[in-house]
Design brief:
Blueprint (H helix, E strand, L loop, with lengths): L1 H14 L7 E10 L2 E4 L4 E9 L8 H6 L5 H17 L4 H5 L3 H13 L11 H17 L1 H9 L3 E3 L9 E2 L12 E2 L7 H4 E3 H14 L3 H14 L5 H26 L4 H24 L3 E7 L5 H12 L2 E4 H8 L17 H20 L4 E4 L5 H13 L3 E8 L2 H14 L11 H6 L12 E5 L4 H15 L4
């Protein structure tokens, strides 16, 4: 009972920030000799929040359904929210909710909770794409998330800014009254605290879901005008995607409770629409990327490629794997340099297969990390053309290390049989002699990476290079 009272008091204080004349006070349900009653003397057995009833016909969801909302109404709502965001509580604890690790936990955790709906409400391929999109965004935009924390954009917000929770004042007299926004999330700070753009995105998403992109645009336009936030447009699609998935999950759970009823079927349809909307948002903030990691043997290509693929949610394609799985029948008992599996004709087929797979994946919106020597210009050019043809961002990393470092690595790896590659130290000089340098490419398309440092440092340097090449904030 004490816990219930504490949550009622919290609900009261939090909601009075945006609806002070609606949340009137706390009322006890007391036990008397004549039974239960509201207030008065007696033993409290329950606590309730006393609220003023709001006119249902003035709720924003009802108004939107009747096409009875104007651009001016959206501007008033935006003004109300901007004022709220400026005055909202900020603290070191609240800032933590905006850290990239917390944002990742929230977004990926919610997506994981959508797993029960795979195969019924959306496909596994779509779930995999959404996870990849989130991972790509979080990895490439981590500095931006850090910057937004430093800019004090993390607030104790509302947490549930949907049309159902907004009431517009009535008539001409209402033009001077503030918009009423109620029913914030009081039970879980992680859902309420964080980036103000995350809070705001819920309403933008909800309007777009209801087919009123024009109203969403009016809302965003006034927000941009009143609140200086130069990176707002970069984070908005990400947060809209997360919010749409939250609604997909909530409605999916409601469907599971009553799957065979008319109401259940209706809510199932809404859930599927939310999943589709989330996919559309994800395609905006996580366009396909085609990253090629090349260089001589022993330069750390595969270590870097694996790290990039995992962090960016990309598909990792390896020439070594393609060679050993698809062309194993060409392997000879004793192979010399450039013989058997490594004959020029076979290598050309291996790279052609990798290029074909990359094109198919990128065409369907997936990001790819290609891992191989790519010693010939023709292979690199072919992948750059694939990226250009399908509108994917492209970058080629040439990994380089001192000759002695590479030879030691290759010798150690070959002795342990610790990798798919069958390269040996004595191959190094001949491979180097046949490596065609990159010529005539702009800096945005390629860079050198020296992997004689710790792998994590090389990986971080690669992310910095990608952000610079793709002009990411």
């Amino acid at each position: 009972l004490a816990r219930r009272k504490r949550f009622c008091l919290l609900e009261l204080s939090l909601n009075r920030r945006l609806a002070p004349d609606v949340y009137l006070g706390l009322v006890a349900v007391v036990e008397t000799s004549g039974g239960l009653r509201l207030g008065g003397r007696g033993k409290a057995v329950e606590w309730l929040v006393k609220m003023r009833r709001l006119p249902e016909e003035r709720m924003l969801d009802r108004l939107v359904a009747r096409s009875a909302v104007s651009r001016r109404d959206m501007e008033r709502i935006a003004e109300r929210l901007v004022t709220f965001f400026r005055r909202a509580k900020r603290s070191p604890l609240i800032r933590r909710y905006g850290e990239s690790s917390q944002v990742a936990t929230l977004a990926l955790g919610n997506l994981k909770e959508c797993q029960p709906f795979v195969g019924t409400l959306f496909a596994e391929a779509d779930r995999a794409f959404l996870e990849a999109a989130f991972r790509q965004y979080l990895a490439l935009h981590e500095p931006l998330l850090v910057r937004r924390v430093r800019e004090r954009r993390m607030i104790d917000g509302h947490g549930d800014l949907r049309c159902e929770n907004i009431c517009l004042p009535v008539g001409q007299a209402g033009l001077t009254k503030p918009v009423t926004i109620f029913d914030c999330v009081e039970f879980e700070p992680a859902f309420r605290c964080g980036d103000m753009a995350n809070d705001f995105s819920f309403l933008v998403m909800d309007l777009e879901f209801r087919g009123r992109v024009d109203l969403a645009q009016a809302l965003v336009a006034r927000y941009r005008k009143r609140l200086r936030d130069p990176t707002f447009d970069v984070v908005l699609p990400f947060y809209k995607c997360h919010r749409s998935l939250v609604r997909a999950k909530v409605r999916g759970l409601a469907w599971l409770q009553h799957p065979r009823t008319a109401a259940g079927r209706a809510v199932r349809k809404l859930s599927r629409r939310h999943f589709q909307l989330a996919l559309r948002y994800a395609r905006r903030f996580a366009p396909p990327r085609l990253i090629v990691v090349g260089g001589l043997i022993g330069t750390g290509k595969s270590t870097l490629a694996k790290s990039l693929a995992e962090s960016l949610g990309a598909i990792w394609l390896r020439t070594d794997e393609i060679r050993l799985t698809e062309f194993a029948h060409l392997k000879q008992p004793r192979e010399g340099f450039a013989e058997g599996l490594y004959a020029p004709r076979v290598s050309a087929l291996v790279y052609q297969r990798l290029i074909e797979r990359s094109a198919a994946l990128v065409r369907h919106g997936r990001s790819v990390v290609c891992d191989g020597m790519f010693s010939k210009a023709v292979g690199r050019e072919a992948l750059r053309a694939v990226a250009r043809r399908h509108g994917a961002s492209f970058h080629f990393f040439e990994c380089v290390v001192p000759r002695g470092v590479a030879l030691r690595r290759v010798a150690r790896r070959y002795a342990r049989k610790a990798d798919l590659s069958e390269a040996q130290p004595e191959h190094y000089d001949r491979l180097r002699a046949g490596f065609e340098p990159v010529r005539g490419w702009p800096e945005r398309d390629w860079s050198w990476l020296s992997d004689h440092r710790a792998p994590v440092a090389t990986y971080q340097a690669a992310l910095v290079a990608l952000r610079r090449a793709w002009s990411l904030p």
